[in-house]
Write a structure and sequence with these properties.
single chain, alpha+beta, Hypothetical protein af1432, 16 helices, 8% strand, globular
Amino acid sequence: MQYDLPDFLAEVSQAPSLRRLDHIDMNCGLIYTSLPLFSHLLPYSRYAHSLGVASLAWRFSGEKRIALAGLFHDIATPVFSHVVDFMHGDHENQEYTESRTETLIRSDEFILHCLKEQGITADEVTDYHRYPIADNDSPKLSCDRLEYTLQNMVRYGLEPEAFQSEVIDDLSVSWNEEGEEELVFEHFETAERFALASLSCGRIYSGKEDRYAMEKLARLLNKAVSPGILSEDMLYTREMDVIRVLDHSELSKEWRKYRRLSEVNVSCEEEGEDVFAVNAKKRFIDPFVKGAGRISLLSAKVKEEITAFLGEDYSVKLKGEFHG
């Protein structure tokens, strides 16, 4: 899906600290493996996602500060995205890396110049959590969750591209059951279909392949940071730069082994280098239907699928298979 950006967003999107995100893939390092679902995906960068969130926030709010906050929300994303959260033990919330957001915005002179031209202060755009249309508590629907769900449901082959426009056209801003503004659906059928697709995406985001690969890469990065092969600051550069360092270091064999990860299975073996259990955040969306309520209260099928997803056991041990 392509998004049209108004001039003020197009200008500030050229900031160096934002353009770096064009070299950070949304799939948390999995496109570098040989796992069938991920190894053939076309790149989907944090930059493209950020542009999409900003465009949607502008469409649904019409407020520059909300659109800009959406544009900047991932500015602090490190290489391999949430893998760095895993490095720091933040498997379930995956919010560790957000701490640098304000610092990066305030240190980018290009961004500050653009904000000044628009009569907007940095304080208004450094925390997109303050704007429910841009971001809200899971499993509600916001522009952030909407954007990556729309992209991934097509990229993973779950829905046709035409459904993206159908979803956007069915949404508007209204009040939810808590008296908070939220993106809400006009029609039950669209909301149900979208919710089920988001659950399918969620099963991929925290499926055995995804969480195993992320933990495997997190352990490799920890090995690189501890002796100084990589610095913590280098994790906030570009993936190609970090890969180049790994590929020419004493950890090159381990990196190349990671690249050969092609299968993950539940295992009864003792924990070891290639066998371990790992938890992860369970992501899904329970959208609101205008005048009716949450889709999980309206659709028995959605309620059943959410219950099954939340009940999945992530304490099982997993073993990676490295072919080639």
